């Protein structure tokens, strides 16, 4: 049986990939938003096999118990750096919680993108950042756990006449304030106001208006230029 430390590290890695809190994982696994089970792992308490299975199901991890399986050899691939660029996936989660994605966060892993594709969408690899989405305010466009590619070179929102009746035409930006980092549709009106919009109409979130010093202090991390959905079973 794997040690509690190993299971805890595996659970935490997958939890962060999906943009879930410990309480949300336990709600999925045990029907109760209480992170006691995960904290017990952190403290070295060995869980029963039923609890390990429930956590694996909640995190879309494979849990296998049976005869040895021959998975075949692992193929080593040499990356052609002239054709491909590595982009860092940062620890920061956007839409709720702290993290300004300023480059100082822990790098979880790297993903590889074709350089010609990045050029096509106008993104330099040096300015590309990846992060996970947390929260439901941008559904159905972005779901919890989705990965977004941010171009930090596009940190200025173009000034355009405000389209109050059509906020979904505004571009997506990663922004940060004292309350943390988020992804919103951002409009920069001709009057100098910044308007932040959410996509989830079911939540009935009103547009957020920033004027004067509040508008100046709103940090634009960069423009969201691509995202990938996480498919849950």
Label the CATH architecture of the largest domain.
Ribbon
| Strand ordering within the main sheet | 2-1-3-4-9-5-6-7-8
Largest sheet descriptor = 9 strands, mixed
Q: Helix and strand succession?
A: HHHHEEHEEEEEEHE
Number of domains: 2
Average pLDDT number: 85
Kindly identify the CATH topology of the largest domain.
Umud Fragment, subunit A
Instruction: Indicate the structural class.
Output: alpha+beta
| Residue share in β-strands | 25-35%
Task: Explain this structure.
The protein has 233 residues and is of the alpha+beta class. It has two domains: 55 residues, 434 Repressor (Amino-terminal Domain); 145 residues, Umud Fragment, subunit A, CATH 2.10.109.10. It is 23% helix and 27% strand. The protein contains six helices and nine strands, in the order ααααββαββββββαβ. Strands 2-1-3-4-9-5-6-7-8 form a nine-stranded mixed beta sheet. β5 and β6 form a beta hairpin. The protein is globular and about 65 Å long. The two termini are 26 Å apart.
